[in-house]
Structure formats: C-alpha cells, structure tokens
Amino acid sequence: MKKILLTLCLLVSIHSNGQFLKEVYKDFLKYGTFYVAGDVQNAYEETTKDYFVRKPEDGNLYDVPEVIDVTEYYPNDYRIGVGFRKLARFDYEVKAKNYYDGTENNKALSAPTAAVKGLEYLLHYEKERERGEEFYNSRFFIRHTGKYHIVKLEQREEGNVGFKYQSAEVRARLPIGKKFSISAGAIYRTHQTPYGYNPIEIWLNELKDNGHIKNPWYSLGYLYGYSDHYTTYTDNSTGNKTRDWIWKDENGGIVAYSDIDFRNTVFGDLMNKYNDEQWDLLDPFGEISPIVGFDFYHYRKNFWMHGYGSYLLPYHKYIKGEEQFSYLHRNGWGNEGHNRDHTVTEGEQWDDYQAGLILGWKLSKSIGIFAEGEYTKFWDSEILSSSVGINFTFR
Amino acid sequence: MKHLYLYLLLSLSVVTGYSQYKDGISVVQFSAEFVKDREISLKKFNDHNCYTYYLSKHDKYFKKEKIVYIPTVILFYNGEKILKIESGVTLKLPENTSTKIEDAIDEILADKF
Fold it and tell me: Is the pTM of this model over 0.80?
C-alpha cells in the first residue's frame, strides 16, 4: 500500500512539475529570442591630417625640418553583444531585420503599456570599441503588464558616456474601453549626475564674510600645481616694456605667456577636472515619485495612432545620495556656499514628464502621412525626437 | 489650429467608426440561446478580447459578418478576419475548434516578437 501511495505521489509530482515547467516555458521563454551578435565597422578617420615639424637629429632649428604625421589613427570599431529578449512590437513597428542583434529600439521600452499582456524582457550586455576606446554597455528591462497593473524594472549603462540609470515602477492600470487606459503608481529612479549642482561655479562665486572673493579664479591653477610668475617683456626695437604673468606647470615648463592665455587654454580643462572630481565624491542619487499616465492605442492597416504620456508629480522624495546636492536643492547655492535655510526646508519640487505620439494614415493606395515624436523631460535633461513624412507611391 | 482640430476630429471619427469587436486579437463567438450547449468556452483566450453575440440581441453583427451557421467562431486581428470556423448543418463546432484558434493566435503572437 505504501509503495502504491509513494508511486502515486511521485506520478502526481512529476505531472505537476511538468505542468509547472510548461507554465514557466509559456510565461518566460515562449517567443523569447536568445542572440549573440556583433559587427565590425570601418575605423574612424580624422577629416584632416595633423603634422608636426621637428629639427633633424644632427641639425638645428633652421635646417630642413622633418615633417611628422601626428594624425591619430584608430583601429576598427566593433561591437559584440549577447542578449535574451522577449519584447512585442506594436503593429505599426516593422521588424527591421530578420534577426535581432541588440541594436533595436522598440517603442515597448518607452511606452507605459505593452503591445501584449504578460511578461516582456530585454537582457542585453555588450562590449564596444569606438575610436580605439573600449567600454561596456548593458540594458536590463523587465515588465509585466496585466489588465489592472504594470510592473517595470529597468537598468541601463552606457560606458562611453558614463551613463547609468535604474528605475522600478509599479502602477495600477484602469482600462477604459479596449484602446485607452490610465494608470497611477510610484516610480523609483536613480541619476548619477547631480543636476543643478555646478561645483566650480559655487567655488568661484564664494565670498568671504567681508564680501571679498574667497577663491580668485587663478587660485584654481595653484590647486593643480601651476604657478604664475610676474614677468616683464621688453620690445627690443622700441624699448617698450609690458608686464604679465607667465604660467608654469609642476615641472617648470611654460604653459601660458599671460593670464589671459592661461584662461583661454589651460583653465577650461581645470574647471572640468575640478567639477569631475567634486561630482565623483558624490554617491548616485535615488528618488521616489508618484506617477500617473495614459495610453491610447488604435491600429488598422490604413490608420494607426498611439499616444502615451507619463507625468511624475512634484512630490519627489530622495532616498539615496546627499540631499543637499540633489536636484531638490538645485537653487540652494549662493555666494556663501549652500544656503542653510534651503537645507532645512524641503527644497524646490519640479515636474517631470514623458509623452509620445505615433500617427500613420494611408489616405489612399498612393498617399500616406506619418508622424512620430517623443519628448522626455527628466530633471535638467530634455530629450526630443520627432519625424514627419509624406509618402507618395507611383502605381 | 483650426486644421489641428479638424484633423483630430477626423481621426477620432475614423477611430470610433471601427467595430470594436475586431480590435487587436479578438475571438468572437456568434451563437443563439437555443444552442448554448454547443458553444465552446472562450476562457482560455482571456488574454485577448473575447465576445459572445446572440442572434436575438446582436443581429446586426450577424448580418455584417454574414453568419449562416450557429455557432460560428471568428478570429479577428486588427479588423481583419483571420479564421472563421462554422458549425454547419449539425450545429456543432468541430472538435479541434479551440486548437485551431490557439494555433492561429500563436502564429500572430510569434510574428509580434
């Protein structure tokens, strides 16, 4: 009896596991595509060649010089990536190639709702070389869309520009008819750039208690090991004398022959260096915001319209990163450094939003009108992409 | 601005002018009260749009889709008729009706990914 029961249990278990695996396959893997892809492109070529002349080894400055080609030559650009994707295309989107290689940019990644209900994902990781510089890019995107919910997780990294972004959102969704839906929930987003915080501007504008400048611009040069030397120039033909500051680097080499020369050449790089160093001291920021959105989708062969929008309400709450340097306190900096009153207050809220519209109308067999646009405003960053066109086909 | 309003109005009229039961992937069963027991269950297609219309209440759809036999099941995709399965004179849908619909939906979905 025991054996029979055991066998029965085993059979039920195998059956239920089989059923479970079937469900897992249906939800996670079915229609998914695993790909490994890459490409090699021609190396980037400078539009003009750069040359340098130097005196011959056994000659002097006034002998016939050697002309040296100092143009930068790059190796071929390449990209190799691996990925796993299950992202449905909207009906107006045409599959660009017969295969996936990780360069696709589907509307599914930006629209709040999906072309099909259920689980969608994109897991992509690649190595790229551009103009001789090697870096890694990645994009991880997971979304589950149901009749009454949207759950989305996203992480992006673009190595060449040092861009990193993470987000997680949960929304309740209310369909109104078959084509229109509204949604509301909360979103968590990160940003690495301390938008609105410009360390060099703050440093240069800082004043002492007596109202005098605390950090004269040239003191930035001292910070990085440069020194200025008061120098008198004499015009040998007229005997006129002029005076200015010569700038030398740590090794004593002259880098600029006057203050204005230093400001126009070296100083710009120092400002960027200072900003980068100060920004690097800060941890990435993370904030939570309430979000509402809508989505309208209609498709027929001859007319389609897809409109969507998301609005992040001005109730942003930072939960990661130093709030003093966050976007909330972007206007909290003055000549005395960070405004203390501003720190103790809640800062200044702001509106973030994203909207997109895709329209296509085939007026007849010959004429078609198409328009596409998407606008995103997140913190200080604004991204607009749009295109419009009329097609006339001769038949 | 006038043109924009005009365009939007025109677009809305075009959008609302379409039969809603043909939107996206829609499984529509045309039936009548007296053959209710001959209908197939549309439960397994719940991820898509499912409609059951009865002759007594929605006769205009029957005329529009030229329904001759009941029950009849039609699979629409963005307004286009993809599959039509009729019961015929026996008033009974073929055994593999659900499988045929599933296969057709599978083909549509596979093309979307």
Answer: no
Chain A environment of B24 (Cβ under 8 Å): 178, 299
Question: Can you tell me the distance from the alpha carbon of A95 to that of A99, in angstroms, rounded to the nearest whole number?
Answer: 9
- Residue A17 CA: distances (Å) to CA of A27, A28, A32, A393, B44: 15, 16, 22, 56, 21
B14 touches chain A (CB under 8 A): yes
What CATH number corresponds to the domain at position B94? 3.40.30.10
Does residue B88 sit at the A interface (CB-CB below 8 Å)?
Answer: no
Beta bridge partners of residue A128, listed in sequence order: A79, A135
List the single range of A275-279, A323-327, A365-369 with lowest mean pLDDT: A323-327
Q: How many domains does chain B have?
A: 1
Residue A60 lies in a domain: no
* Angstrom distance (rounded) from CA B23 to CA B17: 12
- Asked if residue A234 is part of any domain, the answer here is yes
Domain boundary among A222, A251, A280: A280
Does residue B12 sit within a domain? Answer: no
Look up the domain containing A177 and give its range.
77-194+282-392
Of B15, B20, B112, the CB nearest to A88: B112
Mean pLDDT of all residues belonging to chain A: 90
* 3-state SS assignment for residue B55: coil
Report the complex ipTM. Answer: 0.75
Query: Is B37 part of the contact surface with chain A (CB cutoff 8 Å)?
Result: no
Domain membership flag for residue A113: yes
> B41 Cβ partners below 8 Å, 6+ apart?
B98
Q: Which residues contact A303 (CB under 8 A, 6 or more apart)?
A: A360, A361, A362, B11, B14, B15
Within this chain, do residues A154 and A166 fall inside the same structural domain, yes or no? yes
Which of A262, A280, A298 corresponds to the end of one domain? A280
Q: What is the pLDDT of residues A199-235, one digit of tens each?
A: 999 899 888 888 899 999 999 999 999 999 999 999 9
Verify whether the Cβ–Cβ distance B20 to A177 is below 8 Å: yes
Q: Which residues pair with A354 in a beta bridge?
A: A310, A376
Which residue of A121, A181, A303, A369 to mutate against B (max B Cβ within 10 Å)?
A303
**CB spacing of B113 vs A178 below 8 angstroms:** no
Question: What domain count does chain A have?
Answer: 3
